[in-house]
Amino acid sequence: xxxxxxxxxxxxxxxxxxxxxxxxxxxxxxxxxxxxxxxxxxxxxxxxxxxxxxxxxxxxxxxxxxxxxxxxxxxxxxxxxxxxxxxxxxxxxxxxxxxxxxxxxxxxxxxxxxxxxxxxxxxxxxxxxxxxxxxxxxxxxxxxxxxxxxxxxxxxxxxxxxxxxxxxxxxxxxxxxxxxxxxxxxxxxxxxxxxxxxxxxxxxxxxxxxxxxxxxxxxxxxxxxxxxxxxxxxxxxxxxxxxxxxxxxxxxxxxxxxxxxxxxxxxxxxxxxxxxxxxxxxxxxxxxxxxxxxxxxxxxxxxxxxxxxxxxxxxxxxxxxxxxxxxxxxxxxxxxxxxxxxxxxxxxxxxxxxxxxxxxxxxxxxxxxxxxxxxxxxxxxxxxxxxxxx
Length: 390
Prior knowledge:
Blueprint: H1 3-6, H2 9-12, H3 27-36, H4 61-91, H5 95-128, H6 132-135, H7 140-172, H8 182-202, E1 211-214, E2 219-222, H9 228-264, H10 274-307, H11 313-373
Antiparallel strand pairs: 1-2
Helix pairs in contact: 4-5, 4-11, 5-7, 5-8, 5-11, 7-8, 7-9, 7-10, 9-10, 10-11
């Protein structure tokens, strides 16, 4: 929220009848002021300094159902994707594909945990209608949710950029990574991504930005503002996300061009790179979905803080729900591709088994045919020599 909205009594919840012409306020604004207002003093925790619960907003049963269905679908999708990826990882023998599956596994685990943490809090609010100030008077719970939103929001974007970098090196400089253990390097990259996202999420705890209660009171997020340290953190969050998407787009484009040259150019006599093509298609789909889901929120935050535009809660909530859809759509990319690959491998295996079975069945038939064509020794005047003295 920008400073203009901070001074708005409707947002602050301060009843000042001597300074406000009540006749110019709508009934809804009066309801919010009278029902949810609490005088803010110097002792008010930072996370409640802009929006202070309890709010006059009454969650409907539809909100609880929507949050439950949305969260359950995402958790189930990521769980299925993790099982499918685990089976594929055990069956693969390609080093490049093993590294790619480790990245996908890290992405699935991140999305699963992000949905589990945030959905649990939101669903609990819609079901119990708890009062944040009574449950969390020192803002520890609100800060935890804000950190979770930032951490699990940045991780998929950072992992997407790391996957694009790994594929770029594997396709354009295949000998540069052949001297080291690809699995240990990939695990290190995933851990590094988690560490970077965690460090960024911790910045508001050292006063670089701040986490605040957001309308309608079911979640916490960092304060989107064009002033002070909130401006720094808002710019950091939006620019890191947009740079990850831009890096992914650039590296994936170069990798695709290289694959096209290898498969269709003068090097078309080389072996077919089916695995590289399949991985690039998955990576491009991951990038496209991340761009569609995250760019509206990241661009809105960037424009709002740079242009000092008023931040509207309904826009932030809508764009954040779009970003959360990324955690639901991503797993189905892995599921569809891995199931298709398993079916192809199974079909090839069954075909090989049928060929070997038919070959083994033909051998006795061929031997019997040769024996049938073998001439009878008696007809040629050749008789066996009797054994013993008879």
